[in-house]
């Protein structure tokens, strides 16, 4: 049956805040696909920031099928494998708490491993911390033994950030041990699934470790999902429902919602901000939407956090390659139409001024362009050798931010 927009429930505008799972719009089909995929294997969900990864996995963990035990944890703030294992123990215990016998059995198991409780929080004492890998395996074993009819899905948000911190603070050996250990457990326990999400690409973390001699592929048994923006239909629905929630009405409501959906490139975070900029109880006006967007793009408070797209280049690629990446983005930002890879190679200022373009340098630039695609800056049009910005809004912002003619 076709949806009747006039019967839609309004939604509260919440730019950047934590959404109630019932307020996540336009992701039901994707969530169904993700659950189907999880029947077979674990997942890595990647996307640009603010596309709704966290909202999606929170909604999934809050409404998991009856044959699944789901656990959600934001691991961004963790900086050691020990902390990670302690969090897993806490999450398992909290989920099993509804079954008193299972919960007590789990606590007894953890205490047998040397675990202790401080203020109701499970901790590994210092003497047992060196054996975190054994503790992790025993936790998964206990979970499987006590729940023979369940599949277990651990949703871990911002895994790359955690791995970066472990690498910096605990050393590469600990980061490698955790990555390899989790892969081993996925293969050892047939009903265990893991979902990693991250806006910083996991490939950057693995690449850093491989530069130190690490040769494994720790997620090649997992299926990678590249999260896409909302379709125009779903983005329009979200904009319309947010405007209704803010009391915005009038004959131009549908046209205004469509304008918001189009100019936001289907990014839910931007849609929330655009509607947030509309006066409460005002009349819908599609002509105002471009003005609202332009104000956000040059906002002194950086509410869309767009400057991150520039500052992270140095961390991703190193200072020299970051300079070349900016030249590539500058070149493409000046063109309304897609640009061929050969035009990019022939048009970079640093190469033009050097008077020398060895084949090795060209190959390095091709690799850099592929990384810019993987990191959601650029998009190669299917069946062509042409590139363009992945998001038109990002191209507009980059032009303004860089002061390009």
In helices, the fraction of residues equals 40-55%
CATH topology descriptor of the largest domain? Rossmann fold
DSSP summary, beta strand count: 10
CATH hierarchy class name of the largest domain: Alpha Beta
Name the poorly predicted regions: none
Task: Count the DSSP helices.
Answer: 18
Give the SSE string.
HEHEHHEEHEHHEHEHHHHHHEHHHEEH
What CATH architecture of the largest domain would you give? 3-Layer(aba) Sandwich
Strand content: 5-15%
Largest sheet: 5 strands, parallel
Straight-line N-to-C gap = 49 Å
> In the CATH hierarchy, what is the superfamily of the largest domain?
P-loop containing nucleotide triphosphate hydrolases
Radius of gyration: 24 Å
| Sheet with most strands: strand arrangement | 2-5-6-1-7
The assigned structural class equals: alpha/beta
- Give the overall average pLDDT: 88
Structure in words:
By secondary structure, the protein is an alpha/beta fold. It folds into three domains: 27-226, P-loop containing nucleotide triphosphate hydrolases (Rossmann fold, 3-Layer(aba) Sandwich); 231-297, Orthogonal Bundle (Helicase, Ruva Protein, domain 3), CATH 1.10.8; 308-402, Winged helix-like DNA-binding domain superfamily/Winged helix DNA-binding domain (Arc Repressor Mutant, subunit A), CATH 1.10.10.10. Helices cover 52% and strands 11% of the residues. A five-stranded parallel β-sheet has the order 2-5-6-1-7, with helices on both faces. Helix 9 (232-245) packs parallel to helix 11 and helix 14 packs across helix 17 (359-374). The chain is globular.
């Amino acid at each position: 049956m076709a949806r009747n927009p006039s019967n839609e429930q309004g939604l509260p505008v919440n730019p950047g805040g934590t959404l109630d799972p019932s307020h996540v719009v336009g992701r039901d089909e994707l969530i169904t696909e993700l659950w189907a995929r999880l029947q077979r294997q674990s997942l890595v969900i990647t996307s640009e920031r603010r596309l709704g990864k966290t909202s999606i996995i929170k909604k999934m963990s809050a409404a998991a099928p009856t044959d699944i035990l789901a656990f959600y944890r934001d691991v961004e703030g963790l900086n050691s494998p020990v902390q990670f294992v302690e969090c897993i123990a806490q999450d398992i215990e909290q989920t099993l708490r509804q079954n008193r016998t299972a919960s007590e059995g789990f606590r007894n198991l953890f205490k047998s491993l040397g675990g202790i409780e401080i203020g109701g929080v499970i901790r590994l004492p210092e003497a047992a911390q060196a054996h975190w890998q054994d503790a992790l395996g025993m936790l998964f074993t206990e979970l499987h033994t006590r729940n023979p009819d369940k599949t277990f899905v651990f949703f871990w948000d911002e895994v790359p950030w955690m791995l970066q911190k472990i690498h910096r603070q605990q050393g590469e050996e600990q980061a490698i041990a955790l990555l390899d250990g989790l892969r081993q457990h996925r293969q050892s326990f047939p009903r265990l699934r893991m979902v990693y999400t991250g806006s910083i690409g996991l490939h950057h973390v693995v690449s850093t470790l491989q530069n130190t001699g690490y040769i494994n592929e720790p997620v090649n048994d997992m299926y990678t999902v590249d999260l896409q923006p909302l379709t125009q239909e779903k983005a329009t629905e979200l904009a319309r429902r947010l405007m209704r929630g803010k009391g915005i009405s009038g004959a131009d409501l549908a046209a205004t919602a469509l304008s918001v959906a189009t100019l936001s490139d289907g990014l839910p975070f931007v849609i929330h901000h655009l509607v947030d900029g509309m006066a409460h109880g005002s009349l819908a006006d599609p002509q105002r939407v471009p003005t609202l967007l332009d104000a956000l793009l040059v906002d002194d408070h950086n509410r869309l956090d767009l400057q991150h797209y520039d500052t992270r280049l140095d961390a991703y690629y190193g200072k020299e390659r970051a300079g070349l990446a900016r030249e590539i983005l500058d070149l493409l930002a000046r063109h309304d139409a897609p640009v061929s890879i050969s035009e990019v190679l022939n048009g970079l200022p640093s190469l033009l001024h050097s008077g020398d373009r060895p084949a090795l340098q060209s190959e390095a630039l091709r690799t850099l362009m592929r990384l810019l695609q993987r990191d959601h800056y650029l998009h190669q049009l299917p069946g062509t050798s042409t590139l363009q910005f992945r998001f038109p809004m990002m191209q507009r912002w980059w032009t303004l931010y860089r002061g390009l003619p």
